Amino acid sequence: MLNSNLISQCPSVVFELGNNPVKEFNICTDSRAFEADSIFIALKGEKFDAIQFVEPLLKKGAKIVVVEDSNRELAKTFFQQYPDIFFVTCNDTLKFTQELAHAYIKFWLSQSADRKVIAISGSNGKTTHKEMLYHYLKGIVASKVICTEKNNNNHLGVPLTIFQIKEDTQFAIIELGSNHPGEIKALCDIAIPNVGIVTNIGATHLEFFETVENVFLEEGYLYQAVKENTKGEGLFFVNMDDHFLSKLSPTKGTITFGEVNGEFKTSFTANSVSIENKGEKIILSNPHIIGKHNFHNLAATFLMACSLLPSKKEVFKNLAQTFKPKDNRSMWLDFHDKKIFLDAYNANPSSMRISLEGFIEFCEQNHFNLSRVLFVLGDMNELGNNGPEYHEEIGQFLKHKSVQNAVFIGRFQANYQKGFEGKGQLFNTSDEFKEKAWESLSKSYDYFFFKGSRSLQLERILGIKDH
Fold first, then answer.
1. How far is CA 378 from the centre of its chain?
2. Among candidates 142, 17, 132, which has minimal Cα distance to 67?
3. What is the pLDDT of residue 331?
4. Contacts of residue 190, Cβ cutoff 8 Å, sequence gap at least 6
5. Does residue 465 surpass a pLDDT of 70?
């Protein structure tokens, strides 16, 4: 909850009607989730204007309503009927939401040096890092940690995450997403992170960034933000195995890790990762995740948790064993006595290759014959002009790994097929695959691998609702 006096700190405010009650309120931008005694911000988009929901919410107990100044006359009409309500108009309701979130988190941080805004950016694994770190910290401080919900990592999602912060919150874990240049900076300007990690740099959203070097400039801005916000003393975790991130100049708060370089050395086995530093060796195991990349994530977030709460290292070591993926990310599912590995939240060339490598390695270690595995791959989107080439390369990768059975879904199905050399089954949509082939194929194999971009909604094939 935030104090409504922060409204006056928002530069986009144009006009006010009534008296600001100056007390704490919840923030609501979704009329369906409205609770009485809340500030309702009537967002206006290209295809909608939430002003249509204002009058019903006034009857339900809204105390403060924020609308765009183009709706000022309507606000005046409402005020005549509801003179006890405080109406605010602004140039842009989205901009106002961002300004209010910034004012709130700035005030929250000013109240204690122990409060941390932990931001996570990067090409792949942001959400897994967020969920793992949240799992670690929640095991210690329970209600004193909040994190980004679902995929609320954009220009609206970050403010909504900030509004989750309460008076007793100690840690705010905020995921930062970007698919256009400048977005990470904008989100950092809102959230004021004082702790951070860039997970890795890969070929993501190349339709807008064009080169991986530009992806690095975008995602890596978080390092600059933490450095500036803390005068170089804020904790920042650097993956030295990443070609681009290893170039970041260390600061006083930098903690480095990697298999070859870094102060914390990592090494991997089938079901564990070890972390070694100054003669101390810690082994983290987990039966619920597979792939070197996920154990890398487990180690990175373990280091973050231990750096934030050093006295709880042994507890974190135990908590590492109990983390379970969710929301269609690297999940094992039981399906009619079959095993399905579902990673249908997102996909790009680097995450696809990493996920395939981890899954195939797991199959080999557990003696699962690849002839009994069906690989279902959907499109990898937002790759620009090189999209067909990237899909062909993944098809070639499958062939190189001796994959025998594959299904390709989406507009790049033929490109996958070209690299795989004409052995896969092709479908335009997930629904088409489900209707025409899934029932018979689900009976023909013992293990299944599903991965594709969010737009494919591959989980629908299994009857799972979109998250």
1. 20
2. 17
3. 80
4. 98, 101, 102, 105, 158, 159, 162
5. no
